Task: structure prediction
Amino acid sequence: MFSQLRQIVEQFGEASTLSDAMNLLVQQTKSTMILDCCSIFVTNQETQKLTLMASEGLDSQVVGATHFNLDEGIVGLVYQKGEPINLVNVSEHPQFKYLPSSNEEQFNSFLGVPIIHKRQVLGVLVAQQRTPRLYNELEESFLVTLAVHLGSVLGGTLLDLPDETESKSRSLHLQGSPASSGISINKAHVLQAHLLLSDVGIELSEDPDNEMISFSNAVQSCADEFSKVSITLKEQVSKDAFMLFDVYGHLLQDKALLSAIEVQIRQEKLTAKSAVKRVSETYIEQFESMSDPYLRERAVEIRDVGQRLLYHLSNRDDEQQDFPDEIILVAEEVTISMLAMVPPDKLKGIVSVRGGLSSHIAILSRTLGIPAVLGVPLRLKSIAQKNIIINGYAGTIIIEPEDSLVAEYQILLDEENEMKALVELEANQAAVTKDGCEVELLLNTGLNSTPDVFSEHNFSGIGLYRSELPFMLSNAFPTEQEQVSTYKSLFDQYQNLPVTMRTLDIGGDKQLSYFPINEENPFLGWRGIRLTLDHPEIFLIQIRAMLRASIETQNLRIMLPMVGSVGEVEESKRLIEQAWQEVCWEQALSHEQFPLPDIGVMIEVPSAIFIIDQLAPLVDFLSIGTNDLTQYLLAVDRNNSRVADLFDSYHPAVLQAMRMILEQSEKNNIEVSICGELAGDPIGLLMLLGLGYRKLSMNAFNINKVKYLLNKITVSELQACTEVALKGHDGAFIKQTFIDYLDEKGLGGFVRAGKK
Result:
């Protein structure tokens, strides 16, 4: 029986619609277990009913038209208990309820197992036979396994189930991951690569020289194409996000990649297309086998570039598409080359079946302010040219929404646009609360930054520069001079402001393709300051580059990531002072002419919270990385979809930790700031201000919104809200406390659209 399990699961996953998948599952399960009946009931949370959605054995007329209350019948009992129920004769059970017109009276034995996803019972899978008997442990295990697979699918699909009083809704709700916030209501435009790597066979060539010429021309065409996209978007994105396109440029200049293809053409006598296919697929297989999301992203890039090369090698010119209307771009995996095909003014949303929150498309969608939902379980042929709604706050899409839903989301969209207009109207206001409390706002910059449309008076400096950028855009560790050039442009751009540079922070979810780190638990492994102290040659080169780049402007502040002990700070300071002494000597500068920059540490490892008394005498400032601190406090990997919903920035433990850090910092008279995402979040902002934080660093996209909110609120009121929140037992209570405050102030629109 278990030998057929894999086949059932695979066929279930390949079905064109969810309805077909459920029908196939009951048919296959009935046959495999030699049942007389197999049925699926699905929970409708809105109506609080269990609806019969598929059955092989019951009369077809009751499918879609049968509804149980959640506490009704044996099916309801399985739902309530959340565990299997195995009965010899179901009709003898006191809670049994007969289904009229279903022919159910012929069945005696009953085995029902709950369909569960993330602790929520989504339905019940039922097996029945005419013969009275108990199902054995093997049969029960088989049905439970199928229910687990069914739960994972239903958990990503929010069905509009038939109601007792009205016909089935035509709209379909699907759940993905919220990659970029915002609302969009438009038609879906499906794009697919014209020529896939898998479409190409392995063929030999009679003229390698001619194939090399064709390949070289294709490489140049690709380079010109990506350069054109870069120019088109240059005015819309930040310099850092703009450099994402250089990843493609680097691939098209990668000597190892190009040489490998040339070997296949000249030595193996393959056609250019076949050589691109073979080498690309080899690279893709290597990167896809890696657990780290950043390294897996390289597989996406190589596939995209490889398929663009195939397109140009085919001498095709059929991609000129007319986009008369605004569209939502939908693809199996949205890539930068697809983005290049859509005029920026027509692109109003992005939906991708595959892709993670750290992918380049996720980063660019946030940069461009375009709503995006990734990881949506949909089939492309079922969505082309259909009307869809994207809720980028909640990570949901609605296909063919009813008029009432369109009207509801149009109100949210209008409210969102109205808020944006109000925020932009007051963009030049000072960062001061209504009762006169000044707040210092700083800018986070790096791969996740947004358009550089702000003048210096809109923020007080760079609170976090992610120095991984030049390392990620290189095929080897960048030289000291290369780093000097990169850093100097930043220091010169913000010469009148302090620039806080975080030293190289790789490991965990940030890795380099040329320096892979394979660990069972990378987030608790070799990362941040741990790695660079183990490689002082990398650390010293980077510190020297930072120092040399800042000689003229002298606006550098150095920040150490992932600090968990005093010893790490002492060793880091020793190396920093060594590099400083070397630079001073080389440049013939006295210590007075070029003072040692301020040195700070990030508080993101929980152990650092408890040693602030010992850290304070060694450093000049502290900066809290709320993302990692929350992750470590709650033991939740937010990149793991199975537990990502447990990542709660408003958890009472997070609030208490933030209060403790502030109290310890004030006691030691040391500067403390926030550089995590919490500072740019409306609720997080209120929470931090209520606690007493006055220095916040965030992505540029949030700065004007934060200033607008600051101008409308008072610290005294937030302190009162925070006292209430500190007594809360869960994040939902804390969040609601501040939502209620925003509603009272007429500012609820800043969070309302984010509700699921």
Summary: The longest helix spans residues 208-233. The first strand starts at residue 37 and ends at 44. The chain has four domains: 2-168, 174-190+323-418, 197-313, 437-751. The CA atoms of residues 5 and 145 lie 9 Å apart.
